Amino acid sequence: KQEVTQIPAALSVPEGENLVLNCSFTDSAIYNLQWFRQDPGKGLTSLLLIQSSQREQTSGRLNASLDKSSGRSTLYIAASQPGDSATYLCAVRPNAGNNRKLIWGLGTSLAVNP
Amino acid sequence: EAQVTQNPRYLITVTGKKLTVTCSQNMNHEYMSWYRQDPGLGLRQIYYSMNVEVTDKGDVPEGYKVSRKEKRNFPLILESPSPNQTSLYFCASSPGLGASPLHFGNGTRLTVT
Which is more confident, A43 or A64? Predict the structure, then answer.
């Protein structure tokens, strides 16, 4: 059974730091992996999607990597800003099943302090 | 603007009083899904729909109903709400189950007393 774990659960950093959020999964048979951002009182916004055949994806100051063999993905945020404060969730879409429903981590709550 | 719209954003109701949370998307997406989010449990799928008139249960379907009569709408119905259905609910959509990301609504905070 696929399980997704995000460590740490919470992170507080000063503005300007480069930081890495971690996501690990137990079954390497994935179709893709997605990183989302959730702001308080709002829905989730898709940040990056990495297909199983890809190693990384980049969008602006964000870079997500995928290592299926080790069951890991990292989200790298460069030069963090207070506006990056949010909860970051990763979700894995398995290869198998009709639904191939996303398996979610519990998220990392990030606070970037001015 | 491409979006998923949920209504209402906040709802307080009493046990047993039927309610409907609406969800509409304007992106012509085939796939739609409902989630609930609870502290410590994360996001759990309630129901999903692969296309019009095609719906199926997710992980926690008990106490909920859905319908998909039109492509754009996917309402969530609680026939007899109970306090354990107090939660934050999200509707989401995507073109399919392929390489496209999921688009979420802003959520509905439901309290059942």
Answer: A64
Q: Cβ of B39: how many Cβ atoms within 10 Å? A: 8
Q: Which residues of B touch A (CB under 8 A)?
A: 4, 33, 40, 42-43, 45, 48, 50, 56, 58-59, 90, 92, 97, 99-107
Residue A83 sits at φ, ψ, to 5 deg, of -65, -10
* Distance separating alpha carbons of residues A44 and B4, to the nearest angstrom: 11
pLDDT tens digits for B36-70? Answer: 999 999 999 999 999 999 999 999 999 999 999 99
Cβ separation of A89 and B90 shorter than 8 Å? no
Q: Which of B95, B103, B46 is nearest to B75 (CA)?
A: B46
CB contacts, 8 Å: A100 with chain B: 97
Is residue B34 within 8 Å of residue B47, measured between CB atoms? yes
Beta strands in A26-82 (DSSP E): 30-38, 44-51, 56-59, 62-67, 72-77
